What does this fold into?
Amino acid sequence: MNAASQNIREYFALVEINNILAQENSVLYKKLEQHQQAIQLLQLNKIADSTLFDRFDFVSAKVVNNSTKYYKNFITINKGSDAGLEPERR
It folds into this structure.
């Protein structure tokens, strides 16, 4: 019986582990984007402007609603202004 309860505890711990990994992925994606931009600037032989490196901010979020049948589709995520996000429509 101890093994079964241990397995259940480990299973529910995976949710927290998944959240941690998603946050780490956000940080890594931002660093990757900055690195790729720096390479492009160096290839163009231009001086790097720090504002170019901070154009994107990656935040871990879950899609809670979306559409796929319209010309202009949408997604709704579970993060908002508390996480520093603002709507941007194009």
Residues 2-83 form one domain. The CA atoms of residues 5 and 11 lie 10 Å apart. Helices lie at 2-43, 50-53.
